[in-house]
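Case study.
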Amino acid sequence: MDKEKVPLFGKWSYWYALVIGFLVVCVAVFYFLTKHFS
Amino acid sequence: MSPIDWIVLGFTLGGIIAYGLYKGRATKDLDGYFLSNRSVPWYMVLLGIMGTQASAVTFLSAPGQAYTDGMRFVQYYFGLPLAMVVLCITFVPVFHRLKVYTAYEFLEQRFDLKTRTLTSFLFLVQRGLSTGISISAPSIILSSLLGWDLLWTTIFMGGVLIVYTVSGGAKAVAYTQQLQMIIIFSGLAIAGYVVVHQLPKGVGLTEILHIGGKAGKLNIITTGFERRGAGSGAGGGRGGFDWNDRYNLVSGVIGGFFLQLSYFGTDQSQVGRYLTARSLTESRLGLLINGLVKIPMQFMILLLGVMVFAFYQFHKEPVFFNQTQIKLLEHSKYKDSLATLSGRYDALEAQRIVTLRSVDSAGWPYAIVDPALVDSHLAAMEREKAGYKATVRRWLDDKTVGGDSNDTNYIFLRFVTDYLPAGLIGLLIAVIFLAAWGSIAATLNSLASCTIVDFHKRFSRRNLSDKQEYRLSQLYTLIWGVFCVAMAQLAYGLGNSLIEAVNVLGSLFYGVILGIFLVAFYRKKIGGQAVFISAVIVETGVIVLTVLSRKGIVPLGFLWFNVIGAIGVVLLSELLQPLMRRPQQQQ
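After joint prediction, the assembly is written out as follows.
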């Protein structure tokens, strides 16, 4: 169905992992900021 | 506003209108009018979906929300990246393969006409009403702070963009959103720089975070298990999960996921943006990068609110930011009391700032960073100040006054008009207008596309030529534009935080609409009859639940309505399907 080349990573699953991984990093950084500055 | 502010405002807004008219001039048929001939690159898809989601209220309310309630609102967006991934795997490939104009066309192919019509109808009702709020919210704020006539502000906020939206359709919307987002980000970045620049020497970003943190504004992550009143930060006291708490990690990830999946996957104002992409890859790329940048962007907007909070630690904070409400009190039975209170408040603020600056000779900002340095005298002044503010709010809540005691939406713009230099005020006001225009223009385009594709063309027996369809699309866009401006006039008096009003209204319908699509994609054995009946029953239930929640009978935050609506439709369809005949059409 989707024959187009996936940019940068070659597979869409890597893109999905990047997005979810970045969310986890954001939550971790925010948790650190909350704890550190409270 | 000074003449230079008016010049900046006029030039910016006029430029956008001219650019929209220029870019949309070649559009002459339905495909071009609603889908930009499917020619848009991924970065314009990205800016389009960001510009559609971020309305004027986002930029007005979010800093104020961080100022009053802290930064925990960012958790509302935690479900967004997950929703982007699910969309790219499931929804977007199907929409592209079927080459639909609206998301609801797919439902007729999968279920039947009545399910498509019901879902499209729910979208039209919800979007038509919420767009009225999207216009009225910034109009009220601007007219209050700048003394502009409310009717004309509303017309300018929701009416002028109709010119290029009617003329150029989706292409004009996409190109203007691109430019609008660049101006908006630039304006906010400059505003952030100016806030920091105006802070006293020695107060930088780290000190701002310390000041915000000590005041409970850096409650970015909350679990929902903190007891109310025991501190909203991560270190608050422990208790049971607060289902009524609107923004926390759990409701943000779960409730936010369902809300964002529904918004981006089933709301035509968003679907219409990524269907304009030149390929499936470009659509996916735009959505996934939105999943990467949305949370940091929202974090920065909220951080701006914390910066403004830090600023007012060293400058006189108004007893109430919305000056119109103060004028209301000046003409009420509280006139004399207000004069006495204002005198005491002003003296207290002057004394507080002098005290604050003089506490620590080594670096006075640390006077409020380190509680040990804050003497009891200063703490007592903070309590007295809070008491004066509470008194003003109580007076405004008095029915004989009929005021609005919610000041959240006025904080950022009051700061802008009081402290930013000439020219920059005009730019920030333009940012508010552009944010409104980008969101409303995309909505008008989607409302018109659903009206003509899901209703007019679907039910009319007349065959129309390309030119007739194009003209009719322009007419529907114009009608929806006028309708939304009229709704904005009726929306005044909703009260509370306006950004939440828009979100609550969305949660009334989004869950059920998402439930219908989830059944369509994932439960292939369920037919149109079962899902239609389920949707009607669950929607009724969600509305009843909302009323009970607003009255405090059922303690439930609005984000959970999305979960209940979506799962309710899926489960009820499963139960009803065995009672129905086998589905006639399956994908």
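Observations recorded in class. The radius of gyration of chain A is 16 Å. The first helix of chain A runs from residue 12 to 37. We will return to this complex in the next lecture.
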